[in-house]
Every structure is written in structure tokens, then in C-alpha cells.
Amino acid sequence: MILHGMSALVVLAEIYNNVIATDTSPKQLEFATKLPNIRYQQTSPTMSSAELEQKVGAESSVDLVTIAQAMHWFDLPVFYKQVKWVLKKPHGIIAAWCYTTPEVNDSMDQVLERFYKNSYWDSPRQMVDDKYKTIDFPFEAVDGEDSSGPFEFENERWMGLEDYFTYLRSWSAYQKAKEKGVELLSEHVVEEFKRAWGEDENGGQKLVKFPIYLRIGKVGA
Ligand SMILES: C[S@@+](CC[C@H](N)C(=O)[O-])C[C@H]1O[C@@H](n2cnc3c(N)ncnc32)[C@H](O)[C@@H]1O
After folding, report:
1. Which band of pLDDT confidence, cut at 50, 70 and 90, is reported for residue 154?
2. Which of the two ends of the chain, N or C, has the fewest CB atoms closer than 10 A to its terminal CB?
3. Which residues line ligand 1 (CB under 6 A)?
4. Mean pLDDT of the region 132-158
5. pLDDT at 8
6. Contact 100/128 with Cβ under 8 angstroms?
């Protein structure tokens, strides 16, 4: 299988004999957990057929292509053509998910909503705001389902406020603002978040929910 994105790598490496983890960013690949059955591969933003075959695999050789919070950045017509080429027919699966903004409590979520509404997001982010409902997804429903989604899930994670800030700083909009000399997490905004975070029960940790939206389909004949 191929995995775009690093977060679910460990689980996938337990299920599949061979995992190919691709990203355009060498840094992202450096951060990933290293396991013997995962091959890491830096790829071009839009791969040529030759690069696809060399770095990923031959025609009809892959069981699952999965992409975490990244597909909205891709050149989709080219990507889908390559997914259809590389997946085993007819049962090869593509599963792509996105996650929207984290949910903590009403006051935190209100501060986040104001923070989120900034002008530094690139237009593909809209597909995440739309929970992948509007993203083009030309694949057949998998057995037992009558559509390719989006199907909603939820991921929960215990986080301290510093972990939460680290996550906000990883956002492309935060990075883009920073490059333009704008600190979105200004002292004032940090104070607002601190007030909203509230009491320090559970050692300062809170259960943070990440809504996840999955599009899943099979390649067909
Ligand atoms: C928001 S991060 C998601 C990281 C990881 N998948 C996760 O869920 O934590 C988006 C990732 O997409 C990668 N990316 C952007 N355009 C890409 C492309 N055309 N091909 C492959 N990866 C790409 C970026 O380098 C970045 O690592």
C-alpha cells in the first residue's frame, strides 16, 4: 500500500507487509516513525509516470492508497490517473481523509473560530472546510456502502495547551502569515486561549476532539 502522510503509519505497518510512505517534504519524512516494512520516498509535487513507477510501483501492484489531510493540495486529475494505474483492479482501494478544526470546549472553540478566520489560507483549504463533500472523487462505493462518503469519525487526543499551540503553528496559514511578518499567535491571542483553556485539572491536559471525514472508494474494473 501507499500512504501519503505520516500519522497512521504505525497502524498500517502492522496490517500490510509493505508500506510506501510518500511526501514532497523531506522534513515531513524525517519526522516519521521508522519501521522495517515502511519505505520512505520523497516525491515531486506532480509525479511523472516514470517517477511513479520507479518510486512507488508497477501497474496494478498496490492494494490501498491512503492520504491524510493532504489530497486537497494535489493536482487531482493527474493524481487520480496515477492512482487508477497503480491500484490492483477491481478491488484496489483509495481512502482519503481530512480533519477539521479541533474541539476543546465552547470558549476555546470560539477563540479558535476567530483565529481560524484569517486571510492566509490557500484556496484548497475550502475543501477541508466542506468536509471533503465537494472534492472530486471518481471512485466506486466499496462493498456494503452506497456512496464514497464522506464518512464521519472522531479522533480524540489528550493535549496540553502547548501541544495545542504547536498544532496551530503547524498550519499552513500560520506559516504563511509568519513568512509575511505576521504573528497570528500574538501575545493577546495567546492570552485569550489561556483564559479559555481554564482550570488546570488533569495536569493541564484536556481531551481534544478532531472530527475526521473520510472519502473511500474502489478502483473498479
Ligand atoms: C497537513 S500535512 C498532513 C501531514 C500528515 N499527513 C498528517 O496527517 O499529520 C500535509 C502534507 O501534504 C504534503 N503535500 C503537499 N502537497 C503534496 C503533493 N503534491 N504530494 C505529496 N505530498 C504533498 C505536505 O508536504 C505535508 O506534509
Report:
1. very high
2. C
3. 4-7, 22-25, 28, 43, 45, 68-70, 73-74
4. 96
5. 78
6. yes
**How many angstroms separate the alpha carbon of residue 67 from the centre of ligand 1?**
8
Which one-letter amino acid corresponds to residue 66? Answer: T
**What pLDDT does 5 receive?**
46
Query: Atom 19 (ligand 1): residue with closest C-alpha?
Result: 45
Ligand 1: centre distance to CA 60 (Å) = 24
pLDDT value of position 203: 78
Angle at 92 (CA atoms; ends 87, 97), nearest 5 degrees: 95
Mean pLDDT calculated for residue range 180-208 = 92
Pocket mutation for ligand 1, best pick of 22, 25, 121, 167 (most atoms within 8 Å of C-beta) = 25
SS3 187: helix
CA dist., res. 91 & res. 88, Å (int): 6
Copy the grid coordinates of residue 119: 486571510
Confidence of residue 199 (pLDDT cuts 50, 70, 90): confident
CB 97 within 8 A of CB 152: no
Q: pLDDT tens digits for 59-105?
A: 999 999 999 999 999 999 999 999 999 999 999 999 999 999 999 99
**Ligand 1 atom 16 nearest Cα:** 73
Give all strands (DSSP E) within 18-144, no chain letters: 19-23, 38-42, 64-68, 93-99
Q: Which residues lie below 8 Å from residue 143, measured CB to CB, with a gap of 6+?
A: 218
User: How far is Cα 217 from Cα 214, in angstroms, rounded to an integer?
Assistant: 10
